[in-house]
Design a protein that fits this description.
Helices cover about 75% and strands about 0% of the residues. The chain has four helices and no strands. The protein is elongated, with a radius of gyration of 17 Å. The two termini are about 30 Å apart.
Length: about 100
C-alpha cells in the first residue's frame, strides 16, 4: 500500500491539475516520488528512535531483520510498479470521464 496508494493519487493530481502528459516520464516521476516518500518516512522513523533515546531495534520493530528498511522501500517500489502495470488503463479512462477540473 505504501507505493500503491500514493502513486495513484499523485498520478491523478499531475494529470488533472498539473497538465502532465501521460507516458513513461510521468510513470518514472511518480515512482520516484513514491520512493522518496518511503525513504523519507524511514529516515523520520530512525530519527524519532534516536531522538527519544530508545534503542532503534525496540522502537523500529525490525524483529531482528537488519534489512527491514530496505525491504520496506523495495515493497513500496513493487506496489508502485504494480499499480502502474495493473491500473494505468483503468485510471486513464476514469480521468477522461471526469474531464478537466473547473
Amino acid at each position: 500500500m505504501q507505493g500503491f496508494v500514493p502513486l495513484t493519487v499523485l498520478r491523478e493530481l499531475l494529470v488533472r491539475l498539473g497538465g502532465v502528459k501521460r507516458g513513461w516520464l510521468l510513470a518514472l516521476f511518480v515512482m520516484a516520488c513514491c520512493l522518496a516518500v518511503s525513504a523519507s518516512y524511514e529516515l523520520i522513523e530512525f530519527g524519532a528512535a534516536m531522538a527519544l533515546g530508545q534503542g532503534a531495534e525496540e522502537f523500529l520493530g525490525t524483529q531482528g531483520d537488519p534489512w527491514d528498511t530496505q525491504w520496506d522501500i523495495l515493497m513500496c517500489l513493487v506496489g508502485a510498479a504494480g499499480a502502474l502495470a495493473l491500473l494505468t488503463d483503468i485510471h486513464n479512462r476514469q480521468i477522461d470521464r471526469l474531464g478537466s477540473p473547473a
